[in-house]
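In this supplementary section we document a worked example of the pipeline. Step one takes a protein sequence of length 118 as its only input; no multiple sequence alignment statistics are reported here. Step two produces a three-dimensional model, which step three serialises into structure tokens for compact storage. The input and output of this example are shown verbatim.
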Amino acid sequence: MKVLIVDDNHDVSELLSIFLKKKGFDNVIINDPKIALGHIKEEKYDAVVLDISMPEISGLDIIKKLERNNMLQDQKIIILSAASLTPRQVDNLLKKDGIHDCLKKPVRLNELLTAIAN
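The serialised model returned by step three reads:
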């Protein structure tokens, strides 16, 4: 399974990468959301772990751009959020084809693993 980790925090993305490698998942880290958007459009990943709060281009911006290009439904995106999303915002995101889960930071690694594997 190939996982893309998109988070502007290098420490968080490195920790997630190490954990996923130990669990047998190939993964790629991209800390720049602009570059990540291009990779999502060009490559096929089994799952994308996407931080929602990033400078310049947020995870929500990436989701909107994928929607506009009719590419969101082809994704398996697991959102990570340190920001306090309202239950309504989370519900609205989870209704979108391609969004599979929304996990709050600090993420519990077993929850992340379950979200990726399902």
